[in-house]
C-alpha cells in the first residue's frame, strides 16, 4: 500500500512538471504577447494569415492583409510577431546583391520561387 502511494505521488509530480507547468508558461507568454500588441506591427494569426495591425480594440484587432483589405480578428488569434529577418528581400532584383550579402554565397536567387 505505501509503495502504491509513493508511485501515485511520483506520477502526479511528473504530470505537474512535464505537462501543466510548461503549458502555463506558454499561456503566460501568449497573454504577454497579446497585451503588448501595437499598431503597425506585422503579425501572423494562429490560422496562418500574415498582416499588419491597423487598429486595436478591447478584444479585436484590425489586420491589414493586403492593400485595402482589412480583417477583424480576435486578439487571442494572434500567434506571433513577424520580425524583419523572417521576410525575404523584396526590393532586390535577381542578379543584384544587397549590402549584407556575401558575394561568394548562393546564386543570388530567393529561396522562394514565384510561379
Brief write-up:
By secondary structure, the chain is an alpha+beta fold. The protein has one helix at 2-35, and strands spanning 42-45, 50-56, 60-66, 69-74, 78-81.
Protein architecture, described:
This protein has 115 residues and is of the alpha+beta class. The chain has one helix at residues 2-35, and strands at residues 42-45, 50-56, 60-66, 69-74, 78-81. It has a five-stranded antiparallel sheet. A hairpin with a 2-residue loop joins strand 3 and strand 4 (69-74). Mean pLDDT is 81; it is low at 88-101.
Strand fraction: 15-25%
Integer average pLDDT: 81
- For the biggest β-sheet, the strand order reads 4-3-2-1-5
The coarse overall form would be: rod-shaped
Oligomeric state: single chain
Radius of gyration: 22 Å
Number of helices: 1
Distance between the termini: 68 Å
Overall structural class, as computed from helix and strand content, comes to: alpha+beta
pLDDT below 50 for ≥5 consecutive residues: which ranges?
A: 88-101
Would you count the extended β strands for me?
Answer: 5
Helix-strand layout with pairing:
Blueprint: H1 2-35, E1 42-45, E2 50-56, E3 60-66, E4 69-74, E5 78-81
Antiparallel strand pairs: 1-2, 1-5, 2-3, 3-4
